[in-house]
Amino acid sequence: MPKKRVLPYILLGLINNQTKMSGYQISQEFNHEIGEFWHASHSQIYPELQRMISDGWIEPDAEVSDSKSIFYLITFDGKNILQEWLSEPLSEKDDLFSLKLYFIKNQDSPLLRELVEQQLQINSSHYEHLRSRRELVFPDEASIQNSYGHSLILNRAIERERNHINWLKSTLDNLE
Amino acid sequence: MPKKRVLPYILLGLINNQTKMSGYQISQEFNHEIGEFWHASHSQIYPELQRMISDGWIEPDAEVSDSKSIFYLITFDGKNILQEWLSEPLSEKDDLFSLKLYFIKNQDSPLLRELVEQQLQINSSHYEHLRSRRELVFPDEASIQNSYGHSLILNRAIERERNHINWLKSTLDNLE
DNA sequence: AGCTTCATGTAAGTCGTTACATGATTAC
DNA sequence: GTAATCATGTAACGACTTACATGAAGCT
Fold first, then answer.
1. Distance (Å, rounded) from C-alpha B76 to C-alpha B91?
2. Is residue A98 part of a domain?
3. Is the dihedral angle over the CA atoms B88, B92, B96, B97 positive or is it negative?
4. Do B152 and A105 touch (CB under 8 A)?
C-alpha cells in the first residue's frame, strides 16, 4: 500500500483553525508557527488545494473578495476527514504527534489525552528497545572504546526517549 | 543548488567501519544499528554502489570470493571524501549529528569534540528562538487556552532542546 | 517438493525540491 | 520608477518507495 500523505490533512487543519485561508497565507504559515514541525513549498500547496476542492474537502470562498487572494473554507466533509485523521492511531515511524496536537485547540478535547497516551506507549517501547540494544552491543568498556561515536549517540537516543517520556507523563498529570 | 546527498557518504562510512561490505550486508545494517538513525532500501543501495565505483570511491574486492556476494572496499580517494564530509560544518536543518558520530570510532578524534560543539551551538540558538516564540505567541493564559495543543508542543520543543543541550554539555565535559 | 532467506538488480510511481514564469501591489 | 513583496501557477528534476524479476542456497 502507498504511504499515507499528510500534506492535505495539514492544509485541512490550518484552514479549520483559521476558518478561512488563502494559499499564500498557508505557505506563510510554514515560515512561522507550524514551520517548527513541518514544511511545504507553495508549488506543493497550490496543486494540493485544487485536488482538495475536487475531493470536496474545501471550497473557495464565494464572497466577492476585494483582495487578489483566493480564500478557502473547509466543508462539512472536510471536517469529518480531518477528525478521522486526527483519530487515527499514531504510528511509530511517522511521528505525527506534534503535528496533530497543533490542530487541537481545546484543552478538554478527549483526543488530547488519547494522543499523549499513545505517544507515551510508543516512546516507552522505543526506550526499552534502545536500552536492550545498548546492553547487547556495548556490554563492556572495550566495545565502547571500539565504536565510541556509536555508543555516544545510542546514549543520546536513550536519554532523549527518557526525557520525552517524563514530559509526556507530567503533561498527562496536568490534564487531570 | 541541489540538496547535498547523504546516502553515498553513509555507504562510504559503513564500508570504512567494517573495511569490507557487500550490498546485502549494507542493506541489513539499516535493519539494525544504523537503522535507528537512517534507512535505505536495497533498490537504492545497489545502483548507488555502482555510481561510487565509477567515481572511484570504492572498488569491488578482487579476491576470488567463495560466496555469491560482491564485497566492496573503500579506496584512498574514498577515505578522503568521507573525512571531508565528516568535517563539513553541521547545518541546522539536515540534522546529521548522530549519523556523523556513528562513523567516528575513536574517542580521541578531534572531530568528535568539534561536532558536539557545533551541535551545541545549533541547539542553543534553536532553544533561544523557541523561547522567544513562546513569549510572543503565548503571552498570557488566554492565548494558551486558545491554542492548547500548539502551546503544548511548543513547550515540548523547548524542553527537548534544553535536554539536548544538557546532554551535549555533559558529553563535552567527559571528553576532557 | 515447497518455503524462506540470501543476493542482486530494474521499473514505475510518488513526493518534494528548485527553477521558471507572470502579473499586481506596495515601499522607497 | 524600480525593487521588494504579494499571489498564483507550471515544469524539470531528484530521491526514495513499492513492485516486479530472477536465481541460488538452505531448511522442513
1. 27
2. no
3. positive
4. no
**B:48-87 Cβ neighbours of strand D under 7 Å:** 68
Strands B21-22 and B71-74: antiparallel
Q: What confidence tens digit (pLDDT) does each residue in B99-131 have?
A: 999 999 999 999 999 999 999 999 999 999 999
Backbone angles phi, psi at B109, to 5 degrees: -60, 130
Mean pLDDT calculated for residue range A17-42: 94
d(CA B160, CA A166): 11
A28 and A83 housed in the same domain = yes
Residues of chain B found within 8 Å of residue A156, distances taken between Cβ atoms = 98, 164, 167, 171
The model's pLDDT over B63-97, given as tens digits with 9 standing for 90+, comes to 766 678 999 999 999 999 999 999 999 998 889 99
Query: Residue B109: enclosing H or E segment and its boundaries?
Result: none
What pLDDT is recorded for position B176? 77
pLDDT score of A64: 63
* B143 located within any domain: yes
Greatest pairwise CA separation for chain B in angstroms: 73
Section A122-135 average pLDDT: 95
Query: Are B148 and A104 a contacting pair at CB < 8 A?
Result: yes
Total domains present in chain B: 2
Range of the domain at B166: 110-175
Q: How far is CA A89 from the centre of its chain?
A: 12
